[in-house]
Write a structure and sequence with these properties.
Blueprint: E1 10-12, E2 18-28, E3 45-46, E4 49-52, E5 59-62, E6 69-73, E7 78-81, E8 84-86, E9 91-99
Antiparallel strand pairs: 1-2, 2-6, 2-9, 3-8, 4-5, 4-7
Length: about 110
């Protein structure tokens, strides 16, 4: 996968309430052999989420482990999905959304 940063998304509803996404939440649903307590019971090889330095020369690989949650800022966090060499990677990705609350309780 190509290295990228996730983009924030924002909207304002009919009542004037503003919401914006600032963070990505990535939930892993199965184990890779690299993280499985018993690697013989895991089929997945590869599929880590690589967090990269700006020049892409350094990385931290977050390997798939069922129940692991990776949360990171959209802006400035360069990342990519590593190739899956065997098995299937099961994951869920969503954004964390925030509503702007103005002083005095008005949204």
């Amino acid at each position: 996968m190509i290295a990228h940063c996730d983009a924030p998304y924002g909207e304002t509803d009919a009542e004037g309430r503003s919401t914006e996404t600032l963070f990505t939440l990535h939930l892993y649903l199965n184990d890779s052999k690299a993280e499985a307590a018993d690697p013989s019971k895991a089929d997945l090889i590869g599929g880590a989420t690589d967090l990269l330095s700006g020049d892409e020369k350094r990385k931290v690989a977050v390997h798939c482990k069922a129940g692991r949650v990776l949360i990171f800022q959209h802006m400035g966090v360069l990342h990519s999905g590593a190739d899956v060499y065997n098995g299937v990677k099961y994951t869920m990705r969503t954004d964390l959304s925030y509503e702007m609350v103005r002083p005095g309780g008005a949204a």
